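Data availability (excerpt). The following record was deposited with the supplementary files.
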Amino acid sequence: MVIAMVKGVQLYFEERGHGPALVFAHGAGGNHLSWWQQIPAFSRHYRCVVFDHRGWGLSLDGNDAGPAAFVEDLRGLLDHLGIERAALVGQSMGGMTCLRFTLAYPERVRALAMANTFAGMRREVWLAADEELRARWRAVWERRRADGVKRALGRAFVRGRPHLAFLYRQIRLLNEQGPNQLNTEAGVQRLRALERLPDTSATAEALAAMRTPVLFIGGEEDEVMPAELMAVAQRLIPGARMEVVPSAGHSVYFEEPETFNRLVLEFLADVP
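Predicted structure:
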């Protein structure tokens, strides 16, 4: 196991490849294993770092600081690795880590890819969306809660590649049945609470002042972080770009890895 001691907390991480630093931050249902289809492709060009957020995967959260510590954890990990500046890829929950880190330490972020996420800016996105859009997605989320549906993957993916859908679920079990015995839903609620606080949620003014190149990647069938609301998020950040992948759900990186990898590689190649 490769462990970094950050503020007394054990963070699990792995490194592969050489070149400019590129850090991947997983979502609430994932961990460092989630990026198995990215590292072989990106490590040919970049020094790739994957890690487990505290309380997820193999990273322990002994002081129960939870998601409130994610940003400083990332800073501590980069310091531990001697990385002054990196490009960041954040999936869902990991998008909040990466966005908040970018706002706090813009000089340390070369570029930011927000994958299936507007976490960290949810409040401003909701306020900027029109009432029709809010009503449409409020109804979808209420239906999901009433039905108990937690589907994240696209329908065609689950039908056509059941072996990979099974692997997707097994990766999540490292969080829930590993050393942390994580209650994922409780962890997500702690994260959502941060997004409601003015000092931990991005403001419209802070987003409008961003100069870091940003790429949003959405899935056409994503009901967790819908592409329509991601488009609102894109408009809040000057110069931000967006790509929507057809038939994909909440995990484009896993469902359509070749497309995802190409989009991120092209985006990074355009960044000076």
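Summary of structural features: The chain has twelve helices and eight strands.
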